[in-house]
Write a structure and sequence with these properties.
Blueprint: E1 2-4, H1 10-18, E2 27-32, H2 41-52, E3 58-63, H3 75-86, H4 99-112, E4 115-117, H5 119-129, H6 133-147, E5 150-152, H7 154-160, H8 165-177, H9 181-193, H10 198-220, H11 225-231, H12 238-247, H13 253-272, H14 277-294
Parallel strand pairs: 1-2, 2-3, 4-5
Helix pairs in contact: 1-2, 2-3, 4-5, 4-6, 8-9, 8-10, 9-14, 10-11, 10-12, 10-13, 11-12, 13-14
Amino acid sequence: YQSFYSDCDLQEVYDAVLQFPVMSDKKVVILTDYDFEKCKKSDYDKLSTVLAEVPDSCIFILLYDALPIVVKKNTKLSKLMAIAEKNNGIAAQLDYRTVPELAKMLENGAKKRGCVLAPNTAKYLVEMVGEDINTLKNELYKLCAFVGKGEITKQTVDEVSVKTVEASVYSLSKQIIEYNTTAALKTLDELFYLKVEPIIILSTISGFYVDMYRAFVGKERGMNATEIAKEFGYFGREFVIRNAMQDTRKFDHKRFELSFNALRIADKCLKSFSGDDRTVLEQLVVKLGFIALKGEDID
């Protein structure tokens, strides 16, 4: 098994594909997010050669995960697909399910088990648990077993389901901007108890503020949530922008400037080991809450 990424040398990929497997019957080579639309013609030709000459002893996968590919009327893609199919290959488009699709799946699953899961609660479950289908199914089984027969509420989700780290830090971020310091510090304590890395907590809080700022700027330009989500690449995660637009109601440019400065200082402290990680994050929580409430910084 060998994996290559967008910055690779295609000659190395070609050599890996042709190399005969020694310890097994087959060899797998994966090339992820290689931008064939912007590469040089010689590199595109080399990629075409790789696809055309894949031997029976190798499974070559050209995977596009983070890099978006336009399928319709894409001449270069069509040529690559034709070459692969001529060499007994397969071209498949396997998109991630969107949040509405996942929510609908959960609603139907709950109904089959004699429970009621409202659309808003189903979306809330996705936001709290994450978008992995297996995890969602497991949480749904647990919720239905807990309720027995009846309605699964948001309160039930909070009591029974295991939140992702992102969801827990999202709750922390919401508590910060609402200046609910007691609840925010309690959530932070729970994250430390779960041994979540401080830099991950800070990174997720920073991401929350970036989402809010994008929603804020988009709203200033007269854009709606769908347009903002498309502009910044929130494919299948439009709910993030919708939530962020609600969260920005009490924010202005000064609050964002002060908040980002506080996040920058905390990031520097964590990475320079100049202070206790817990103290740094506790001070950040209090400072961000004060900024959200008063629009002013504190030392």
